[in-house]
Amino acid sequence: MLEHEGWSFTLSLTLFFMSTAVIGLVGWKLTQLVDRLADRTGIGEALAGAVFLGASTSLPGIVTSVTTAWGGHAEFAVSHALGGIAIQTAFLAIADMTYRHANLEHAAASPANLMNGVLLMSMLSLILLAIVGPEFSLWNVHPVTPCVVAIYIFGLRLVHHCHVEPLWSPKLTSHTKPDEPEAGNCHENLQKLMMAFTASAVLIGTGGWILAGSAVSLVTHTGLSETLVGGVFTTMSTSMPELITSLAAVRRGALTLAVGGIIGGNTFDTLLVAFSDFAYQEGSIYHATTNQQVYLIALTMLMNGILLLGLLRREEHGIANIGFESFLILLVYLGGITILFLP
User: Fold this and answer.
1) Side-chain-facing half-sphere of 273: CA atoms under 13 Å
2) Are 296 and 83 contacting, i.e. CB atoms less than 8 angstroms apart?
3) Which helix (H) or strand (E) holds 282?
4) Structure pTM?
């Protein structure tokens, strides 16, 4: 992590907002690149959202969680990963507001996105089991950590198989936006696309590295808890790419990518806890957490469960022209985070 000792409050705040701006601006460019990569590679928007968009927009979160875990801030690292999943799920409701034709859950019907959602719930359950289970570690790493990584890789194979050979498909309506590649994107230079994607990912990762140092410095200056700063304020900044790329995807009409980017990114973000466990030097990071991290896991699982209900129910129009589930997700998130502020 950046050596933040001696940083003034003004410098920390300035770097915090500057790195947030960089993350947001570069994140906007990523959507177009990933949409074109999905068409060029033929893997589909849902898997591209999970792999390319999810991994790249999660880079600031990876850097922040891993560097803070390495520095011994276990609560901050885990709260940042879990808080990111919660706020990014809430971002999907905001993206729903910008699509006026129908509810996003209705228009972006995709078995692959449902599969990603179930994978996310399974991985969160594993993390919860590690936290509440007996204290055990091998070489400072909990046995659940490699299991989380292995399940993620296996889950991606299932998602890809679901896209290539689906055994069932959602009913198409006049508002359903199927995942169909644009003809011009299928013949683009793959090497150039990957180079542009890599450059954008490096910029986002650098922004996350600076953000991590400034965020920990702000914890010191303000006296706020690591859970509050890591789970709320820092996640708002490092999750900016997810919000921006989702809004941009909706604007481009890539609705499956918009939903897949959020759900796939959330699934990838569970790996942040695993990476943090590898980086944490004082034993298993799961056993250095508190009830507040358990609370964040329960909150994210509740929000994801509501989202899955929405994707299955597929309400065409709802409250304020967004799905009832999207409205409920926002309500649950705001209420859940408010409770964290209570003494």
Assistant:
1) 39
2) yes
3) none
4) 0.81
Q: Which two tokens stand for residue 16?
A: 């915090």
Residues 6+ apart with CB under 8 A from 168: 111
Domain-embedded: residue 176:
no
Report how far Cα 187 is from the mean position of its chain's Cα atoms. 30
d(CA 198, CA 72) in angstroms, rounded, equals 30
Domain count, the chain: 1
Tokens standing for 168?
Answer: 């069932």
Residue 254 in 3-state DSSP? coil
Picking from 123, 121, 92, 338, the residue whose alpha carbon sits closest to that of residue 231 is 338
CA-closest candidate to residue 15, choices 242, 240, 215, 229: 215
Residue 89 CA to residue 192 CA, distance in Å, equals 32
Give the gyration radius of the chain's Cα atoms: 19
In a domain, 184, yes or no: no
Q: Which of 117, 200, 214 is nearest to 158 (CA)?
A: 117
Alpha helices of the chain — where are they, by DSSP H? 9-41, 45-48, 54-57, 59-70, 74-98, 104-107, 111-132, 144-164, 190-222, 226-228, 234-238, 240-252, 255-279, 291-313, 324-341
Dist CA 116 CA 262 (whole Å) = 10
CATH of the domain at 107: 1.20.1420.30
DSSP conformation class of 324 = H
pLDDT in tens, 134-161: 888 888 899 999 999 999 999 988 888 8
pLDDT at 108 > cutoff 80: no
3-state secondary structure of 134: coil
Q: 13 pLDDT exceeds 80?
A: yes
Q: Name residue 194's beta-bridge partners.
A: none
Range of the domain at 292: 13-166+191-341
Q: Is 6 part of any domain?
A: no
Per-residue pLDDT tens over the stretch 168-178? 776 666 555 55
Residue 1 within any structural domain of the chain = no
